[in-house]
Amino acid sequence: MAPLSIIDAKKIILSQEGIPLPIKRSGYRLFRHEIEKEKPVSTKKALEHVLGWMLIQAEKEARSAYRVSTIQKRILYLLAVEGFTQSQAAIELNRSHYTVKHYCINLRKQLGVDNFYQVVAIAVAQGWIPAPTLER
How far apart are CA 47 and CA 27, in angstroms? Predict the structure, then answer.
């Protein structure tokens, strides 16, 4: 069996599905570092290490995608559970309306959703807020 070439290793690294491109790029740099250091490992061993590292980094990134600050959770609670408007939440939290609006926009971007209903769904699923109930 022919040894693994650097070009083949790069193709393998970049072809990994479900791994964000920045992690793939860092993985390739790590691969190059592994094979170019004073006591290099084989290209096959370096590739194994890098693919394992990439998987760990992707998992960490996926877990951290849903990390929100305490103030964002408090705003979510006030809006979704207590039924406050953004202006009311701003007064309750001693913040400006613009700040609360900005937190909501950033939260939607951070969670990768299009609207507040989707934010609430994720918040309930993650346990940040209790499921809203309808009062009769």
Answer: 9
Task: Give per-10-residue mean pLDDT for the chain (136 aa).
Answer: 83 91 88 86 89 86 74 91 93 95 91 84 85 64
Number of domains present in the structure of the chain: 2
Same domain, yes or no, for 55 and 89?
Answer: no
Residue 106 maps to a domain: yes
Angle, helices 43-64 vs 21-36, to 10°: value is 150
d(CA 38, CA 95): 55
Give the single-character DSSP code of 66. T
Q: Do 53 and 33 contact (CB within 8 A), yes or no?
A: no
CA distance 79 to 87: 10
